[in-house]
Amino acid sequence: MNLPPKVTERAFARLAEINDGGDIRALRVAVSGGGCSGFQYDIRFDDAESDDLVLEGGGQKVLVDPVSLPYLAGATIDFEDELIGARFIIDNPNASSSCGCGTSFSI
After folding, report:
1. If I label 107, which of 37, 46, 69, 92 is the partner at 20 to 30 A Cα–Cα?
2. 19-58: per-residue pLDDT in tens?
């Protein structure tokens, strides 16, 4: 059986900062065809669907749809804040290669 993706405390903490004082929105992490390597990540705020996997921590939610779930099995969703920018990142053990920007990958 495939392991579900996991979300780091740092990613949940950043979601809490983003959602502070406003409508709490969940972060959706999805995979679609495209990008320079074949597949690309789609990371956006969204509402939960009835068939989503919901990962919760610190009062925050990350959503993964059933079509994207096999591509994200065992992946780690994290947040990084570096000099070149801040972003949610995905460490995906299923990806055999990825592009330089980290938003597309191949299996």
Report:
1. 46
2. 986 777 899 999 887 656 578 889 999 998 899 999 999 9
